[in-house]
Write a structure and sequence with these properties.
Structural class of chain A: alpha/beta
Number of strands of chain A: 19
Shape of chain A: elongated
Number of helices of chain A: 14
Oligomer: homotrimer
Helix content of chain A: 25-40%
Distance between the termini of chain A: 29 Å
Strand order of the largest sheet of chain A: 1-10-12-11-13-16-14-15
Largest sheet of chain A: 8 strands, mixed
Largest interface: A-B, 37 and 28 residues
């Protein structure tokens, strides 16, 4: 049986870590935005690893209080000084252009140019990442050191972009399970050359899908998995708006972002606050015996803002490493390939897989002998000799499972109550099932009909 | 719009503080008790500041397990020594007489007198305050130093008081609001020359009523406010007994006492323990960023004992500064005009006003776009440029309000969840209403009918 | 009135402590097991102190997932060395035989003997206690020091035991109360010469029954008390299996074990976790003002495992001193008469009695004057002179009882809320009843019919 393992220590994280890093390196140069060919190109690359479907939603489509915007594409952009030298050059870094800049071709004084320049005085060597999606303007981002050296004089400004009717593009992969109850894995794919936020989310989501595809080829998964690669905010709004009938099937969800740095894991809870996904992630992080933090839901961050809006209130949390805005490299040119590591990506993937393994196995069971304990000894499940001071963890765990397999408690409930790992609790539950002492609680199942109290 | 401000920093507390102090100085010399002309005189003074109604309830009126007692009045009292010198003199301090003393005119030895003398050996310079309302006797209170210097010999004892059928007097002011749901403000007015307990409560209640009268003249208040100036215990019992049909309208209430000293605020919760009034006061105190303490309900203290008796169990707490019995001056002649300050009175008034402002504005709202976030940017409510690390508090607060404006959460709920002040949360809620993004949840309102989900 | 006292300080614990210790000394030499004459003999000794009924359940009787085993009896056992000297001798200590050993008579080498020998390398002077109830084998237990001195050579091995169809024996005493709602007191009586585990439980249960018998002779008890003296695990399973219809009457229960050592009390909660018995024991321990610990339920330990199995989930906890497995003497020959003390036994009995007194008196009451406070002063229940800083504990406790005597709160609820001892709360409740201010809430009672709201 190829059951998903919740034992992360068994997982080789080096190999997929390097593969994810390599994929990230390929995606890094592309100039993504919330629409346009940069996203399409990125999704095509991902589509080589997993069978992704790309959807195109026309400009002007109303999505709740919003409208799908014009499509933005850019070929080149620069600022030349009076000597004709490019002092800002899009070809050097796509962060140099204020994302979604309208086209411009003009000569102007430094004074006229300056309101269109964005820099970070506190991080003078970094190019900031700035956007202006919903207010048509143009601009350049540059290192503050460079800005300060610009001399008075005339500048030639060129942004060779288009803002025109087109489409919003997103990628989707649905992996059907034995149930249509769905786990949503959502990641934003709209940031240009920024690694942790959020190429890391894109590659970890890709390899997570790849791993689940492989597993489901051997044995069907319990849940349906829906992977979304979407532009931030407008993408999740668009998907929600077009799939209101699918929304209620989402039983658990995670927003994947900032999973490539070496920082400790951070879990931001769903708005529900004590959903199964919240408890599953927290248990998984606690079992790693490494530092981690848990944050209550707040209505800012990534697309959990939309999934957890009051009209949906889905059980969707966000598992990151260092969260958005809390690392110095955030939204700057320093969030580059040197900032993320294959090892961190590998660990992140393994942790997501462990969470999913837990969700897959987190069922309710019924003790077939609920009155008193069953006689474990004659089944070889308990030490033959009595009187000893200590009992093996597996025997203890068995007693916990038997005592709480009352149809109300899930295996995660039992793991939390007993202090044993979900992995051990699930393992002994399977042993007890094999010995006919436990049955999975399942509506309409034949075996259940016999045993249920 | 003259909406009540929950921003206490905006409130000028010096001016009303001095006015309250001056009123207290005028009330200080009067010999109040649970009945009699001292109370009547005091209520007349208060009636010059606010349109107070005085009620007279006849002696003998049954009030639950009690009976309205005889009315007590006193003109003079003294003890003269053998030389004819007054060694105790009511004219020096009305605390010298055991409150509610029956009349007496006699000569007696020191030994016969002593059982009628009350002093505080641990505070030898203070005159204690003692009462004997329901057991007819007589006595004098004096400084222990003075008691110890009394020489053997004959004493002339005179208490020129009357205990006779009459009335219990209390003052009441009802300020109608748009709803008959009522906020009760109750203060005891039965203590003689004692400033913190409870002339402070009487003057702060008076100026609170004055402020709400002024505000309601400009814009009707949401709640009806009922101010009671009553003798302790028997007064609240009497009012409750005569107004059982009004009791259920009381949605919030505070007992005002000990609000003139410089000590930190103390809030004693209602018996319900998590009533809106409890949370409103605690939030208000926390926002002051000064030390304060919160106590659980206990069945002793002031008139909250009666309001929170099991047959009523009203949401009535008590907001004091140093609570009863916890300051050395408590119930002694040291609780005088030097012990209280205009500044403390002013701060107390401002804090009560802030609590009331919170109650007035603490409503439920509905997000008109509950699915996903509304597009704040195009309404000028959100920064046009994206990508920055930090977001303004007002923008954050707006997101919190939108996310939790689900008809279940009050603004106070949202303030507590978000960690922002109620003031900011209420302010952005009003902004969002003005932009058509939010509607107040109100049964039967027309706008609500359109928007409610 | 001979109401049970919850004031443990009033209890003379020395006298019954010594009597319990003497009974323990008489029981100590007997070789008990889960069946057989050792148990019968022990129950006969107990039957001299209390009117115990002995039940015999035949071998082969199915009890849930188990079967009543063959009866085991033993006359003698030894191991002789080549010189014919007894190197292990059952007559020296009945712990020397692996409990439930099948008969054996053989000569064998040391190498062949060794797999049948059990010792404790870390406690080389102790004989361990080991059992093999459900797997037919034989063995000897001995001090590790002795084991290490055994020389090579032939040994004569003899266990003169029988394993044959017979009975499982248990003792029972039912003490009827005014209600058939039952308090279960269960203790295991299957351990051979081990004092704390569990001769201590047997003698404390015996004297607890003796005390309740005496009390019920004077005044009927509220609850029915059922005392069980049973072999561990199989005994409780057998009783539960034969009395399923009685099980629902059990409203509170305690498993008595390890109550003779000088360690602090340990209370292990029932599976329900917040049952009345849990709160009653914890309150009683807290009032002792000695260290104690409270443990959450876990599905190992003593017979609470069976009473709290999911098919029964009874409110049964376990009150011990140092719990099983946590003292070095546990399940060794050092758990002897020197390890337990009369004083500890006496204190344990007093504590159990205090818990039972609390259960007996822990009723709901109704304030006959729920609106406002009743006038305690005119009934002589409250100080006549007002104004003092402090109030007597008994007056405070009265106010607490009156405020919470709303038919919902038990006296224990009020004790927990107020911080006063249950003893004081119960005492003032009885005073208030005597003054007609309070009535016990009781369905169908005549006095209640008059007063109930």
């Amino acid at each position: 049986m190829n059951r998903l393992s919740v034992e992360q220590t068994n997982t080789n994280t080096t190999e997929p870590g390097q593969a994810m890093y390599d994929m990230m390196a390929a995606l890094y140069p592309l100039c993504r935005s919330i629409t346009g060919d940069g996203v399409r190109h990125s999704l095509r690359l991902i589509g080589r690893a997993i069978p992704l479907t790309c959807h195109e939603v026309p400009t002007g489509t109303p999505v709740f209080d919003w409208t799908v915007p014009k499509e933005w594409n850019i070929r080149d952009a620069y600022v030349k000084n009076a000597s004709g030298e490019k002092v800002i050059d899009f070809q050097q870094s796509n962060l140099h252009v204020l994302n979604y800049s309208a086209p411009v071709a003009a000569r102007m004084s430094l004074a006229a140019l300056k309101p269109h320049l964005f820099s970070l005085p506190d991080q003078p060597t970094c190019i900031p990442y700035r956007t202006s999606y919903y207010r048509e303007t143009w601009g350049f981002c540059l290192a503050h050191n460079v800005l300060e050296q610009l001399e008075e004089g005339d500048y030639e400004v060129c942004i060779d972009s288009t803002l025109a009717d087109g489409h919003l593009t997103y990628g989707e992969l649905v992996l059907p399970g034995t149930s249509d109850e769905t786990v949503l894995i959502s990641t934003h794919c709209c940031h240009p050359s920024l690694c942790n936020d959020n190429l890391s989310g894109m590659v970890v989501s890709t390899y997570l899908a790849k791993a689940l595809l492989a597993q489901s080829a051997e044995q069907p998964l319990r849940y349906t998995y829906r992977f979304l690669f979407i532009p931030g905010t407008i993408g999740s709004l668009t998907w929600l708006s077009l799939h209101e009938d699918e929304v209620t099937k989402i039983k658990h969800g995670l927003v994947v972002a900032c999973v490539g740095d070496e920082g400790a894991f951070t879990y931001k809870k769903s708005r529900q606050g004590n959903a199964a996904i919240d408890r599953a992630v927290i248990h998984t992080l606690a079992q790693r015996q490494q530092p981690y933090q848990v944050l209550d839901f707040s209505p800012f961050g990534y697309d959990e803002r939309q999934y957890c809006s009051p009209g949906f209130n889905l059980p969707v949390g966000s598992l990151t490493r260092t969260p958005h805005g809390r690392f110095a490299e955030y939204h700057t040119s320093d969030d580059n390939l040197a900032f993320v590591t294959p090892a961190a990506l590998g660990e992140s993937l393994a942790t997501y897989l462990a969470v999913i393994a837990l969700l897959e196995q987190n069922e309710r069971y019924l003790n077939c002998n609920p009155k008193g304990e069953p006689q474990l000894g004659r089944r070889g499940l308990y030490s033959a000799f009595g009187g000893k001071k200590d009992t093996k963890a597996s025997e203890m765990a068995m007693l916990w499972v038997l005592n709480y397999a009352d149809g109300d408690h899930t295996l995660l409930d039992i793991a939390e109550k007993s202090g044993y790992s979900f992995a051990l609790i699930a393992e002994v539950a399977h042993t007890l099932v094999a010995h006919g002492l436990l049955v999975r609680k399942e509506n309409g199942s034949k075996e259940n009909a016999v045993h249920e109290l």
